[in-house]
């Protein structure tokens, strides 16, 4: 007698009871059940089945994890953990108590969508089959992981990683968003293709408030679905024409997130999409073992300790069977997102794989590993379903550890690398561009987190400081404002082509730094902070006045009604007032030669170009939570 079974819920709290429904093809269900902790393989419980219902009292001490209840009929000679086929394996999660740094979401929705794929009226998949189901129930056997077990490699790795990890069903993200607030890092793993509107809202809000998201997955958040019947029915028409919600609330129509009438590309959250990704299926699936990433920003913190250099290949076998990507172009041999597909302009591409030849095996495209900021939080994506299978590779292991260590533990706000520096240059940001002046040459690159090369555009005076206002005032045009070594304030239009520099007036003798904020110039000279209004400089009336002390300050900039400064090792701030005010310590700033800011970022020049969010002291302390 072969048994079938399903759990009455995808997740349960410790100390609670979880029910299972057992079938035997019309006969009386009888046999054995064994409960296994999936990441460790440890047998946790067992019992006898005698009838259509079996209950598990989950002990308080059980760790939060993914579990598998393996049911088998009487007389089975199989091993204790082997079920009577996939329909007799019932998976569930035991949730955590909330003290873990990391929350791992298990994609039960995707598992259920593929349950009975291709059977008329039973499976949500395949996408264009007219006999596919538009709604399926969790109250049926099956709905477990696919034979390839895309999720399991990372789960097993986490079991020995040393990180405190809790688990949830991805359905919990729909109706229990408070779970997210207990953890620093949410992990999406493997193949998490089907999301509700509520899941998307809750995860985006979590990241914007300062939570982090690591996506070791692909084809992520591809279809919008709805849940009905208390979360036990999954609805996905895959077609706006047949979905009755199109007439009631077009935003909830169950089509691809990027498609009309939803028009909410998943890139806004994930940075990438399967629209630009690749896939190899069926008999061609082994092709993915042949592919590798190519490092494109090897000095980024994600690659720390790997020994990689730009252009090196790594992670062979990690790519597939589906990948995600962002639309990008090459700028001086460096990838840069275009944003045409909905990817955030600030998405930083760390590695790429050219998989366009996969069009002969499924779908041709790319894979783009990357990272971006969303509000106060950070999103990392590996952009492949198969990441977990390559964790035996030391480089893949190191990247994974870097992501968990950085995003899953308290890290103070600090500068992070965005590219190579121009030696001894002073910097200014204006109109989306970053300018660097050194050795009589003016260079430019886009102001972004990508490691873009510098491009020479013009000559420049011998400058000791450079700056730009956030917006124009009378006497302070929106452009580049510098101080020459011989003490003159000069101006230039902020364009990436030749322009003349004009003299506006004198600077304090010995000036080493210049900042522009609140229609006022601020300068540092001889350990003092000087100020002068833009209007007085334009009219050539008045003079520079000492307003405060600035001992040790080597760089200065204005941003968001605040004056920021750097000493040899600290970042400081104070209000832009014409009088004494305390300097507030915002954290480390070692090696800063020049400082500028725009669009909420402080950018520091030195041996490299780095940036950090322009946050207050209170926000910097909060980041250490």
Number of alpha- plus pi-helical segments: 9
Question: Fraction of residues in helices?
Answer: 10-25%
Question: What low-confidence regions span 5 or more consecutive residues with pLDDT below 50?
Answer: none
Total strands: the figure is: 45
Which strand order spans the largest sheet, edge to edge or round the barrel?
Answer: 11-9-12-14-25-24-22-18-19
Rough shape? Answer: elongated
| Major pleated sheet | 9 strands, mixed
Radius of gyration: 29 Å
| Distance N to C terminus | 54 Å
**Strand residue percentage:** 35-45%
Mean pLDDT: 95
Helix/strand class: mainly beta
Describe the structure.
The chain is mainly β. 10% of the residues lie in helices and 37% in strands. The chain has a 9-stranded mixed β-sheet, sandwiched between helices. A 5-stranded mixed β-sheet has the order 2-8-7-4-5, with no helix packed on it. Residues 53-392 form the N,N-dimethylformamidase beta subunit-like C-terminal domain.
What is the strand and helix layout of this fold?
Blueprint: E1 4-7, E2 11-12, E3 17-23, E4 30-37, E5 42-50, E6 53-57, E7 65-73, E8 89-94, E9 102-106, H1 108-113, E10 135-137, H2 152-159, E11 165-169, H3 172-175, E12 185-190, E13 194-196, H4 197-208, E14 212-217, E15 223-228, E16 233-235, H5 245-248, H6 267-270, E17 279-280, E18 293-295, E19 313-314, E20 328-331, E21 334-337, E22 348-355, E23 362-363, E24 365-374, E25 377-381, H7 394-407, E26 416-420, E27 426-430, E28 433-438, E29 441-446, E30 455-459, E31 463-467, E32 480-484, E33 488-492, E34 502-506, E35 511-517, E36 520-525, E37 528-533, H8 534-539, E38 545-549, E39 555-559, E40 562-566, E41 570-574, E42 584-588, E43 594-598, E44 601-605, E45 608-613, H9 617-622
Parallel strand pairs: 2-8, 9-11, 9-12, 12-14, 13-15, 14-25
Antiparallel strand pairs: 1-3, 3-6, 4-5, 4-7, 7-8, 10-16, 15-16, 17-23, 18-19, 18-22, 20-21, 22-24, 24-25, 26-45, 27-28, 28-29, 29-30, 31-32, 32-33, 33-34, 35-36, 36-37, 37-38, 39-40, 40-41, 41-42, 43-44, 44-45
């Amino acid at each position: 007698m072969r048994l079938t079974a399903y759990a009455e819920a995808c997740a349960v709290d410790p100390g609670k009871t979880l029910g299972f429904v057992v079938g035997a093809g019309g006969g009386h269900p009888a046999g054995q059940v064994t409960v296994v902790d999936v990441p460790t393989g440890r047998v946790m419980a067992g019992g006898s089945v005698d009838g259509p219902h079996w209950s598990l009292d989950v002990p308080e001490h059980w760790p939060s994890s993914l579990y598998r209840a393996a049911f088998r009929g009487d007389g089975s000679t199989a091993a204790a953990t082997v079920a009577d086929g996939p329909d007799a394996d019932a998976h569930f999660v035991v949730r955590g108590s909330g003290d873990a740094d990391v929350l791992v979401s298990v994609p039960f929705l995707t598992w259920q969508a593929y349950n009975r794929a291709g059977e008329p009226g039973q499976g949500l998949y395949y996408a264009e089959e007219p006999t596919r189901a538009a709604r399926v129930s969790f109250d049926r056997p099956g709905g477990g992981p696919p034979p390839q077990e895309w999720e399991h490699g990372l789960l097993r790795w986490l079991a020995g990683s040393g990180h405190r990890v809790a688990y949830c069903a991805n359905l919990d993200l729909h109706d229990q968003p408070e779970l997210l607030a207990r953890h620093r890092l949410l992990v999406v793993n493997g193949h998490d293709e089907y999301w509700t509107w509520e899941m998307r809202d809750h995860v985006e809000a979590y990241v914007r408030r300062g939570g982090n998201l690591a996506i070791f997955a692909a084809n992520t958040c591809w279809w919008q679905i709805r849940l009905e019947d208390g979360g036990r029915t999954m609805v996905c028409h895959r077609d706006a024409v047949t979905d009755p919600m199109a007439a009631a609330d077009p935003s909830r129509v169950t089509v691809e997130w990027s498609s009309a009438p939803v028009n909410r590309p998943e890139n806004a959250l994930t940075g990438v999409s399967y629209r630009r990704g690749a896939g190899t299926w069926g008999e061609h699936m082994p092709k993915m073992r042949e592919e590798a990433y190519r490092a494109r920003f090897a000095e980024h913190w994600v690659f720390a300790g790997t020994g990689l250099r730009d252009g090196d290949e790594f992670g062979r076998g990690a790519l597939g069977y589906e990948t995600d990507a962002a639309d990008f172009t090459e700028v001086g041999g460096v990838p840069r997102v275009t944003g045409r597909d909905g990817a955030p302009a600030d998405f930083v591409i760390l590695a790429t794989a050219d998989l366009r030849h996969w069009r002969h095996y499924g779908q041709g495209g790319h894979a783009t590993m990357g990272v971006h900021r969303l509000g106060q939080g950070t999103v990392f994506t590996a952009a492949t379903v198969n990441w977990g299978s390559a964790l035996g590779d030391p480089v893949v292991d190191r990247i994974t550890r870097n992501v968990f260590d950085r995003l899953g533990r308290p890290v103070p706000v600090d500068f992070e690398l965005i590219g190579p520096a121009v030696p001894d240059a002073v910097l200014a940001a204006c109109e989306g561009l970053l300018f660097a002046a050194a050795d009589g040459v003016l260079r430019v690159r886009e102001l972004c987190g990508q490691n873009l090369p510098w491009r020479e555009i013009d000559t420049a005076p011998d400058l000791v400081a450079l700056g730009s206002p956030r917006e124009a005032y009378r006497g302070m045009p929106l452009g580049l404002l510098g101080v020459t070594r011989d003490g003159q304030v000069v101006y230039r239009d902020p364009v990436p082509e030749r322009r003349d520099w004009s003299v506006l007036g004198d600077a304090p003798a010995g000036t080493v730094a210049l900042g522009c904020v609140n229609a006022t110039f601020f300068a540092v000279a001889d350990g003092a902070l000087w100020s002068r209004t833009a209007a007085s400089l334009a009219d050539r009336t008045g003079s520079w006045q000492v307003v405060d002390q600035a001992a040790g300050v080597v760089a200065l900039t204005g941003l968001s009604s605040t004056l920021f400064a750097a000493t040899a090792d600290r970042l400081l701030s104070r209000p832009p007032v014409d009088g004494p005010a305390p300097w507030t310590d915002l954290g480390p700033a070692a090696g800063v030669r020049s400082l500028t800011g725009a669009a909420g970022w402080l950018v520091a020049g030195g041996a490299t170009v780095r940036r950090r969010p322009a946050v207050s002291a209170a926000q910097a302390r909060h980041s250490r939570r």
